[in-house]
Each structure stands twice: as structure tokens, then as C-alpha cells.
Amino acid sequence: MNIKILFSSLFLCFFCFAKMQAQEVLTIEDAMKIALENNFEIKIAKNNSRINETNVTIGNAGMLPVATASVTDNNSIQNSKQTRQDGTSTSLDNAKNNSLNYGVSIGWTIFDGMKMFARHDQLKELQKLGDSELKRIILAKIGQVNSAYYDLFQQQQQLAALDTTIVISNQRLTLAKNRFTIGKASKLEVLNAQVDLNSDQVALLRQKESYANAKILLNQYLARDPKIDFKVTDQVTVDSKLVLADLIDLAQKQNPALETQIINKRVAELQLKQVKADRYPVVRLTSGYNFAESESSLGFTSATSARGLNYGFNATLNIFDGFNQHRNEKIAKLQIENSQIAIEQQNMILNSQLSIAFQTYLTNLELIDLEEDNEAIARQNLQITLDKFKIGTITTIDFRTAQLNYVNAKVRYSNAQYEAKLSEIALKELAGNINF
User: Fold this and answer.
1) The domain 2-38+114-281+321-430 is classified under which CATH number: 3.40.50.12780, 1.10.8.280, 1.20.1600.10, 1.25.40.10?
2) What family does the Swiss-Prot or TrEMBL record give for this protein (predicted)?
3) Less CB within 10 Å around the terminal CB: N or C of the chain?
């Protein structure tokens, strides 16, 4: 009986292992690649970035001439009566009158106080702002994918630990039944073993549910069918060589939030240039070619027509606008000042976040070593306890305690790896340096 149950347990473990081997192994590199291609928020951010890029043209800045074609056709039917100076009069019912005008006109602003050039530079900065926002969203989503991926890793490790404890609990139940059969144990020992096995099976089912839900969540981040089955790597490598000073230096150059504030200041400076340009005259060239004709059933002239070129220029200068120019310049300068304050604030927030995250990172690195040692000790203790339990030199309570200690140590070790990896990801995200 003992051999049959042990063989069945080993066969079940082998079957589960073979099933996992048949599943797709999703690497973190593949997950990030899929997210970059499929994630909806990244797609929207990419399109917004393309919109900003498309807007950077000299035409949008107002540097090019504008040509307009127009056609106007007016017709009327009227009962008309005319009285001349000599007292004579004439009249006509249903008199037809029509006029037709068409042509092309061109207008070109050749000087506006350099406002158009400042506007063009501002469009370039807005493109950079869109690129920075795209980078921020990509970093956030890639960080999210990494977190979900390594959460699956640690849940996968917990499943393995619970699978192991199920096998051990089955062995314990078998031993208890054998000892009860030969009269060396009470029925209570069998019942306790059965209760503990049932508890382990419940924990395994709960963990399988959590693992399946975590897979669905990762598939959601990857914007693919939630039913796609896969497994993740069974190993995690934590970069233990991060240096706080290097991270701060990278963040000053690459952090999207800080980069956004710096660009916002540049946009505000260019806005001030555009406001100041309103102090200068605006010179605009105009030209066009038009054709006009009209017909009248009553009057001295029955038809007229004209065609030809017109050209000229106009210039305007704001002399007084109720001090609005002064007010607008003052507001633009305050916007620049606010932008500088926002940069300083973001710098302080960024340095604080990096310092806190780095301290957590160092703690988690130490916890990995400590929990690894604890897991090795708990595994050795369980093996010794199992050997003693087989020969009946320890109680079932001591055996169960050793069994739970091993499971908990294994779970804590995988959690320590997971938390350390999260700390690494958070630091690299703040530094704008996640590799993808």
C-alpha cells in the first residue's frame, strides 16, 4: 500500500512537471517586446508623439504664404423702375441681374517681430514634450510588466513548495495508516494527518487560483488573449551592483518627469518671446488675380467685365492696447519662474524617491542571502524530521511544524527575490534606465 501511494504521488508530480514543460516559456525579454508592440496605452502615446512630430512645420508656425481661391455668383429677378433727372422713367418686370467674381489671392506675413520663428521653436519643444511623455508611459508599462512577470515567478515558486508539501503530507498519512494498522499509532494520528493533508490541498487550490489570475493580469498588460497559457522562468537574477550616485546622475539626464519640467520651462521662455513680438509691427504682402463680370436688364450699362492683377502690402503696429501687452509679458515671466520652481521641486522629489528606493533595495539584497540560508536550514531540518518520524521518535506536531517551516522558508525566499527585483526595477525606472 505504501509503495503504491508513493508511486502515485511521484507519478502525479511527474505529470504536472511534464505539463509545465509543454507550456510556452515566456521570457521577460519576450514579454517586454510584446508589451511594446501591443499595449494600448503605449500605442496611444506613440500616436500622440506622431501628432506632435507632424505639427512641427514652418507652415504651422506661420512662415509660408497662404493662397485662397474664391468664386462668388449672385443672381436676381426683380420688378425694377428707374426715374431719371429729367423726369422720365422706365420700368421692367422680371428684370434679370447677375454678377460673377472669381480669382486667387495670396497673403504672406514677412515680419511679425520674429514671432513665427519662436513659434516654430516652440513646436519643436512640444514634440520633445510628447517624446518625453511617450518615454514615461513606456517606462511605467514596462515596469508594470516586469512586476507582474516576477510576481508570477514567486507564485510559481510557491506552487512548487506546496506541491512538495502535498507529497510529504501523503507520505505522512500513509505512514500513519500503516502504524495504525499494526497497532503502533492511534486513530487520532491518522485523522490529524488527513486534516493536515486537506489543509495543504486547500492552500494549493488557492495558490493555483492566484497563479491563474496573475497570468490573466499579465496577458492584459501584454494586450493579448487572457486565455493564452504560459509559464515564466524559474530563476530570477537581481542586479546587486547598483550605485546610488550613478542612479542619481542618470536620473538627472533621463528621468522623464524631470525632463518634462525642463522642456516646460523652455516652452514658457519661447512663449515670452512670442508675447514680446507683439510690440513690433506686422508686415504682410498681398496679391491676387481676379475676374469680375455683371449683367443688368435695366440701366445705362447692360454688362461690365474686368480682370487683372492686384498687389500691395499692409503694416500694423500696436500703439496702445490698454496695457494688455505689459500684463501679458508679466504673466509670461511668472510662468517661466513657476517652471524653474517645478524643476527644483521635481529634483528634490526624484532624489528623495531614489534614496528611499535604494535603501529598500539594499535591505532586500540582504534578505535574499538570509532567506536563502533559512531555506537550506529548513530543508535539512525537514529531512531529519522526516527520517525520525518514519521510525517514530518524534511527534506528529513536531513533524508538522518542520514541514510548515520549510514551506514558509521557501515562500519567504522567493518573496525576498521578488521584492529585491521590484526594488531594482523601481530604481531603474526612476533613473529612466530600464533595458527594453
Assistant:
1) 1.20.1600.10
2) Belongs to the outer membrane factor (OMF) (TC 1.B.17) family.
3) N
